[in-house]
User: Which sequence fits this backbone?
């Protein structure tokens, strides 16, 4: 259900004259006019954009290895990472 309030007397008068001329109910005219209006409007799904090829724009990012920076944070003593994480989770923190 849709309710329309027309505050302009001249438009209201023309609207009723148009319904008499067309010999239709007011709600039929309103539906007709609203569908015509909405059909003329551009909806967001009409947006056209081009897709870029990811392979064309892909590049490899590489950094130089800094031993001084990485020695402090590297966990080179770990040989089995799954066992290390398992044991780390089982440790009791006091």
Assistant:
């Amino acid at each position: 259900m849709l309710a329309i309030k027309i505050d302009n007397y001249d438009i209201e008068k023309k609207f009723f004259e148009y319904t008499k001329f067309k010999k239709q109910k007011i709600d039929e005219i309103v539906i007709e006019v609203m569908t015509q209006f909405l059909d003329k409007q551009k909806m967001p799904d009409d947006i056209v954009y081009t897709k870029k090829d990811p392979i064309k724009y892909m590049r490899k990012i590489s950094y130089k290895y800094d031993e001084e920076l990485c020695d402090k944070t590297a966990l080179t003593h770990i040989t089995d990472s799954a066992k290390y994480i398992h044991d780390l989770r089982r440790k009791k923190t006091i």
